[in-house]
C-alpha cells in the first residue's frame, strides 16, 4: 500500500462526514444503491475506519456492535493500492480487541475473492441486497 495512507479509527461523530461522502460516491452514485438502503440508521453504534492520504479520504469501512463488517468502500481513483486490505485489517484488529470470536460480512459476489484472500469463508446461498448479488462470509478470530 502507498506508505502515505493512514487508517483512522473512530466514531461516526469523528469520521462520519468523510465516510458518508465516500459511501455516497461508491454506493449511491456508482452502484445505484437506494438512499434509504445505504443510510440504515446504524452508523452511530458502529466503529468506523477511514483511509486517508494527506487531507484526502480515500476509503471507509464500519464494524457493527455484533461483529459484522460492512460499508467497505474505496474511491475509484484509489482502488488497487491495498486500501481495502488495510481497512479490513483495521476492522478485524478492532473486532479482536473488542473480544469478538469471529467477524461476518455480506460480500458483493464480485468481491468474494478479495475477502477469501483475507481468510473469509463463504456460507449460505447468494442473495440480493439493493439489487446486487451478495454472499455471507465469516472469519474466525483466533486469539
SSE layout and pairings?
Layout: E1 5-10, H1 12-30, H2 35-38, E2 47-53, E3 56-63, E4 69-74, H3 83-97, E5 102-108, H4 112-116, E6 121-129, E7 132-140
Antiparallel strand pairs: 1-2, 2-3, 3-4, 5-7, 6-7
Low-confidence stretches: none
User: Overall pLDDT, averaged?
Assistant: 95
Shape: globular
For the secondary structure, the number of strands is 7
Order of helices and strands: EHHEEEHEHEE
Number of separate helices: 4
Q: Largest sheet, order of strands side by side?
A: 1-2-3-4
Q: In whole angstroms, how far apart are the ends?
A: 26 Å
| Estimated helix fraction | 25-40%
Rg from alpha-carbon coordinates? 14 Å
Question: Your description of this structure?
Answer:
- With 143 residues, this protein is α+β, with helices and mostly antiparallel strands.
- Helix content is 30%, strand content 36%.
- The chain contains four helices and seven strands; from the N terminus they run βααβββαβαββ.
- The chain has helices at 12-30, 35-38, 83-97, 112-116, and strands at 5-10, 47-53, 56-63, 69-74, 102-108, 121-129, 132-140.
- The strands form two sheets. A four-stranded antiparallel beta sheet has the order 1-2-3-4, sandwiched between helices. A three-stranded antiparallel beta sheet has the order 5-7-6.
- Strand 3 (56-63) and strand 4 form a beta hairpin.
- The two termini are 26 Å apart.
- The model has no long low-confidence stretch (mean pLDDT 95).
